[in-house]
Each structure stands twice: as C-alpha cells, then as structure tokens.
Amino acid sequence: MLDPRPHLGEPLALDLLNTRWIEHGPQDLLTDVTGLEIWLHAAGIDAPADERTLGAVLDARTAIYDTVRQADHTALNDVLDHGRIRRTLTDTGPADTPDVSDPAWLPGWLAADNLLQLIAQAPDRIRQCAHPDCVLFFFDTSKNGTRRWHSMATCGNRTKAARHYAKQT
C-alpha cells in the first residue's frame, strides 16, 4: 500500500503526528486499520493492525500532540505507563529492549518514548511548520537550527510567493 502523506522521514513521534495533514481539506491516515497498517509498515513496526492497536496509537498521537503543542505531558505519561525499557547485557554488549506487555500499545509506546529522546536531545528543534495552512511537524536538523518549514519546496515557496505577490499589489 502506498503511503499518501506529503511528508515522510521524521522521527517516529513526529511521523505519528504527521498522519494528519491538509491537502484539499483535512486528511487523516489513521481513520481505519488500513491506514494504521500503512503507518506501521512505513515505521517498520511489527504490531497487529487491528482496532485495539488503532485506538492505542490514536491515544498516543493525542498525547504527543498535547505534549508538543500545549506542554501537557499527563497523557504522555499514561502512554508511557504501558511499557518500559529493559536493559540487559548481551554477548555483543549492552542492549535496551522495549518491554510492552500489551502488543496493541507497542507502536504508541515507541512513539512516546521517541518523543522523550527528542526532548532530551533538543526540545527547541521540535517544530510545527510555520506556514499558516500547514499542520505538519519536523525535527530541525539544520546546522544553525533556523528551519521554519517542513519543506522548503512546498510551504517555504508558498510563503515566499505570497510575500512577493503582496509586495506587487
């Protein structure tokens, strides 16, 4: 199945947020288990694509959004309560393994855990696209941390074109 989303390749937490976008009106990949299956495949997560998993992933998406946009981490902690990182020493060295007892919660838990990693790494680089009609998120990996749009080719150009046309009138 083809992933219809306009922006791919972000870290898992932001990729989950980007399952909602604007293209000829609001779009949402996660309206059914078929969309969930597309997202799980794109994310490389081996989990059941069923109604229970869809519900858990939607809860995680809301929790991640609330944390990123409103600094409310209550729901994120509820998602994280469904699992933990199990640390072990293997023949090849230390290993961190997700330990989530209910497989339906694994994808959402992994996304919530990824958000914690992004926050620990560089919380100020978790951004929403600056274009007023865009709802997509990205992790700013630019050298000086000044990226404003999820894509310069789409939202960046639209913003610059609008500014140019406004000067002409």
Architecture overview:
A two-stranded antiparallel ribbon has the order 1-2. The chain has a two-stranded antiparallel ribbon with strand order 3-4. The chain has helices spanning 12-17, 33-43, 51-70, 74-80, 106-121, 152-168, and strands at 20-22, 26-28, 83-90, 93-100, 126-128, 137-139. It contains 6 helices and 6 strands; from the N terminus they run αββαααββαββα. The model has no long low-confidence stretch (mean pLDDT 92). Helix 3 (51-70) packs parallel to helix 5 (106-121). The chain is an alpha+beta fold and 169 residues long. The protein is globular and about 65 Å long.
Topology of this structure?
Layout: H1 12-17, E1 20-22, E2 26-28, H2 33-43, H3 51-70, H4 74-80, E3 83-90, E4 93-100, H5 106-121, E5 126-128, E6 137-139, H6 152-168
Antiparallel strand pairs: 1-2, 3-4, 5-6
What is the compact description of this entry?
Helix content is 46%, strand content 17%. It has helices spanning 12-17, 33-43, 51-70, 74-80, 106-121, 152-168, and strands spanning 20-22, 26-28, 83-90, 93-100, 126-128, 137-139. The chain is globular.
